[in-house]
Amino acid sequence: MMGFNSGLDIGRSYYVATANPAPDHPALQGDVDADLVVVGGGCTGLSAALHAAERGLKVVLLEGGKIGWGASGRNGGQIIPGLRKGARGLVKLYGPERARALFDLALKARGLVLDLIERHAIDCDLRLTGHLAGAVNGSDLRDLEEEAECLASVMDFHDVEMLSAAQAREMVNTPYHGAMYEKLGGHMHPLNYTLGLARAAAAAGVTIHENSVALRLEREPSIRISTTKGSVRARHVVLAGDALLQGLEPRVNSRIMPVGNYIIATEPLDDTSDVIPSNAAVSDTRFVVNYYRLSADGRLLFGGGERYTPSPPADIAGFVRPHMEKTFPQLRGRRIDHAWGGLVSVTTSRLPDVGHYGEVYFAHGYSGKGVVLSTLSGKLLAEAITGDASRLDLFSTLRPMPFPGGTALRGPLYVLGMLWYAMRDRIKH
Q1: How much is the pLDDT for 367?
Q2: Which of 24, 251, 400, 419 has its Cβ near the most Cβ atoms within 10 Å?
């Protein structure tokens, strides 16, 4: 696992600038034994560690850099119920009965996150103001209408509301053709949430080591993870490094593709009602999605732009600004105080890759829906490790196809595919 997400400026992020105080955890020194070793200090790994420790396991967690400095602590912070693939897509793939079981399980992610925030008093600017999906053209609006219909008829889920162009404009001051408003959505400060999970895990007895890059995974005679200065021998391992997981288990790596993701934070705005009067989390229907929300101190946090290679743009603020100003011309020229980015992982199906090879467990590939799904996935892994694999087995049936050409060719082929979709996106819009 990489020690840090080099060159992507998470240290300059709005989240790091406003992070709650958190302890440093020492690097692993020497050889230790545990029931479970977790690789990765984001929400997947911390949730797996916390829930396994609560079930009586001795847990050691290794983080290559700092807790929360991967995707978990620098994402858009949007709470969006469900999976990246919509209800209609799930029904088409799996039929109504299994689609509903998967949807219901994914929906539990929200409840779990809210419960953890309450139970462990995690201060993370939680706002349950809903999520608005804005249609950028007429055909996208019809797609959203059909999605809402499927949610109601197949999933028995009625917490969505279709909005006209005028109604959408009252909630977010940019011209959409209409929108689907998901009442159970919202947003939060993802780094402070992740740091809160780490505090809860440590209180439950988890030993956390930062700056401890996992270099090697051995399976025989038992699981052993080695770092530069020590090792952990355990009965089980959870690989939760997402896009930063490198080389420990090739079969796991082959199903995810790291892509660059970039966000800016403006200066505090005098009048946030001129931008998002509803304070909802917002995303649009472009293939290369724009997503944005207000921070607790009145900034616009805006993510957008196409980048299909891990190398970052030289100027992240300059890269994202045009997308923000096209969405909100009223913010043209406003100062950008923070700009950062990082790698997230996507899968061929846009559904998470969750499962295990013997005692090697893994969960990643959330494809933009990791804010709450990661916490749920971690809990499912802990359940399976401690004897109840029923919910993990349901989720693991989602297994996406490996990227064609394996790890060597997936990059070039993926870039070609993404460029095609992006071009089609521009023609449509």
Answers
A1: 80
A2: 400
